[in-house]
Each structure stands twice: as structure tokens, then as C-alpha cells.
């Protein structure tokens, strides 16, 4: 699977279609640009759809990738590793934040177990794509053996396919759960962007200065082993299972021409991997928000994505991506349902006096 030619399988978006979408939006009955980022989002949806979207993206699925990280044993998080499995239980029990948000935005929630360290019982909302009981400690050795990366990427493809089979969707929102996964994400973002470690390492779950120092040291140790800065070496040294798995889901969505709404820092790290594998996959991505993690803004900059909003979120779980789903619908309805000045018989803007 790692040798699969994703660059050939994912169609690049058509710039002419995007330009036609922009032209129609500019002629809708409103001042040009007055709907701000919704207009930009609508242009992207047109480009992805190959024209005006045929629907309003009302079939919505949220896929949460879950996995544990060996570096948690060094105390880089304020919470113990067993919280990963416990929170997955909360998602499946439908009493977590993402469940409340999903009900608010009419989305289905599925959890993909890419590498939780506890054995999880079967559940209708659980997708079993287990790759291992947590990664190795990235501060000491490669988090994922390089020869396993294709297997993990394939797990992401399988998770996408399974979610689509259980509840066909028009738009996919991605999130994650994994104690210590901001450490892995920081290492990935630092490796891809070349930014200083201290610029990409944040306090995650709200760690104190002592834990922050340990976290920075862990990221530095992982980066010290990276020599060729290929996506394979970066993903192998930093992990984690859910990050690489979500990269596979992004590639699958792009191949199917499905918009992918990205949540926060960890999902942005997954997008960096997907973009390294097939750069055109990023054309199908929408950044929901800018998180409080300092490296997230740097990751979005590297991805070339502008977030739709900034609500000081840092929870993960796809909470920010869920909140963006109604904006996707609004953008699609705008370009589908609004009339142009000509169609509505409304006078256009008068020329500025000279």
C-alpha cells in the first residue's frame, strides 16, 4: 500500500471550475466579498464538486481516529494513558463533547481504533482497524517501524471505507483521541516545517512547565533521528497510529472527491503526511479552526489553509470540525440557492464617481 500511486489516483481540482464558481459568487445579490470566508469556502466546494455542488452536504460523518502513544510514559501529558480508552468509551456512549456537537449539527460519529492500548469491545460505532497496542516511545526509538507504515495507511483507507459503508456521507470531518498525541504532532510539524521545536510544542492538556520541558526534550530526541525528512521517516520516528491512519482517510476522501474538514493540531499533522504523499489531496481539505496549540497555525500555514474560525478551542475529538459542518452547508446553499443580480432582476452596483 505504501507504494500505491496516490498522485495518479487523486484528480487535481480544475482551476477553471473554481474561477467559474468565483465569478458566479461575485454576481450573487450581495456586495462582492461581503460573505467573507464563506465565499472562499464555496469556491472550494465548487472546485471539489466540479461545478455548483449538487447538494447541501447534509449527509455528514465525523470520524475520530484513536490510538495510544508510548511517549506518554515520560509524563508529557497531564492525563494517564488509560484515558484514551476511557474517552473512546465516552464517544461510544454518546456523552462526550463531540457527541453533543454532532447532535447539534446532525452528524454521525464513528471511532476508528488505530492503536488503543486496551482491547475494546465491539460496538456499532467502533471501527476496528487496530495496528498495535500503542506506538513505541518516540523519545527513545522509532514510534512505528518503517515497514509497518503501509499497513497503518491501509488501516486509514479501511476506516474510511467502513464509515462510508455504514453511513454514506457527502462531507467527512476528522478528529482524534490519544493521550500524548500533541507530542507526536509537534515532532511531525517541526520536521515538515523546519520550525524551532519550542515554536511547535504547546501545553496540550494543560501541562505545567516541568512537563513542558520533558515534552520539548522528547520532540528534540525524535527529530535528532530524522535524516532524510521524507514522509516515511518522519511518520516512522514520530508516529502515531491515528495520525498516519487519518492521513490514509484524507487520501481516500480526496480520491472520492469528498470534502474533508480538518479539526485541530493532530489532524493537521495527518494532513501534512497526506500532502507529502499526494499534494493535490490538500485541495480537498477545509481547515475548521485555529487551535490554541501554537504549532497549529504554523501547520496550517504549511498546508496553505486558512481556518474558518478561531474559538480558542483545544479539545480535539473533532469538536472544531463538527462546528464547521453547518458552514459547509451554508456555503453550498449560498452558491446553489442565491440568485445573481441578472437572475433576480436586481440593479447592480453603480460605478464609483470619477
TrEMBL record:
- One BP term from GO: cobalamin biosynthetic process
**Record HAMAP family:** CobT
The EC number of this protein is 2.4.2.21
Signal sequence annotation: none
Give the similarity note. Belongs to the CobT family.
Q: Which InterPro entries match?
A: Nict_dMeBzImd_PRibTrfase, Nict_dMeBzImd_PRibTrfase_bact, Nict_dMeBzImd_PRibTrfase_N, Nict_dMeBzImd_PRibTrfase_sf
- Protein name according to UniProt: Nicotinate-nucleotide--dimethylbenzimidazole phosphoribosyltransferase
| Catalytic activity entry | 5,6-dimethylbenzimidazole + nicotinate beta-D-ribonucleotide = alpha-ribazole 5'-phosphate + nicotinate + H(+)
Amino acid at each position: 500500500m505504501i507504494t500505491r500511486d496516490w498522485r495518479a489516483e487523486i484528480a487535481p481540482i480544475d482551476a477553471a471550475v473554481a474561477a467559474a464558481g468565483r465569478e458566479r459568487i461575485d454576481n450573487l445579490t450581495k456586495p462582492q466579498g461581503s460573505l467573507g470566508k464563506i465565499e472562499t469556502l464555496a469556491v472550494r466546494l465548487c472546485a471539489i464538486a466540479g461545478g455548483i455542488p449538487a447538494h447541501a452536504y447534509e449527509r455528514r460523518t465525523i470520524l475520530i481516529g484513536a490510538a495510544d502513544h508510548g511517549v506518554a510514559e515520560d509524563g508529557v501529558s497531564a492525563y494517564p494513558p488509560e484515558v484514551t480508552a476511557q474517552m473512546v468509551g465516552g464517544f461510544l456512549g454518546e456523552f462526550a463533547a463531540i457527541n453533543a456537537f454532532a447532535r447539534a449539527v446532525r452528524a454521525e460519529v464513528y471511532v476508528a481504533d488505530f492503536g488503543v492500548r486496551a482491547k475494546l469491545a465491539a460496538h456499532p460505532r467502533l471501527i476496528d482497524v487496530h495496528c498495535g497496542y500503542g506506538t513505541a516511545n518516540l523519545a527513545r526509538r522509532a514510534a512505528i517501524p518503517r515497514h509497518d507504515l503501509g499497513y497503518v495507511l491501509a488501516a486509514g483507507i479501511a476506516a474510511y471505507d467502513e464509515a462510508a459503508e455504514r453511513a454514506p456521507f457527502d462531507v467527512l470531518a476528522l478528529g482524534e483521541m490519544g493521550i500524548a498525541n500533541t507530542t507526536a504532532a509537534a515532532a511531525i510539524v517541526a520536521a515538515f516545517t523546519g520550525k524551532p521545536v519550542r515554536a511547535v510544542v504547546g501545553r496540550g492538556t494543560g501541562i505545567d512547565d516541568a512537563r513542558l520541558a520533558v515534552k520539548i526534550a522528547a520532540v528534540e530526541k525524535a527529530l535528532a533521528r530524522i535524516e532524510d525528512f521524507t514522509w516515511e521517516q518522519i511518520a516512522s520516528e514520530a508516529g502515531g497510529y491515528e495520525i498516519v491512519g487519518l492521513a490514509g482517510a484524507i487520501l481516500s476522501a480526496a480520491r472520492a472527491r469528498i470534502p474533508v474538514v480538518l479539526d485541530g493540531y493532530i489532524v493537521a499533522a495527518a494532513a501534512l503526511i497526506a500532502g507529502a504523499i499526494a499534494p493535490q489531496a490538500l485541495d480537498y481539505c477545509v481547515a475548521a479552526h485555529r487551535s490554541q496549540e501554537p504549532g497549529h497555525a504554523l501547520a496550517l500555514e504549511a498546508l496553505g489553509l486558512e481556518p474558518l474560525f478561531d474559538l480558542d478551542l483545544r479539545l480535539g475529538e473533532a469538536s472544531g470540525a463538527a462546528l464547521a459542518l453547518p458552514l459547509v452547508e451554508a456555503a453550498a446553499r449560498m452558491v446553489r440557492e442565491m440568485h445573481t443580480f441578472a437572475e433576480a432582476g436586481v440593479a447592480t452596483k453603480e460605478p464609483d464617481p470619477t
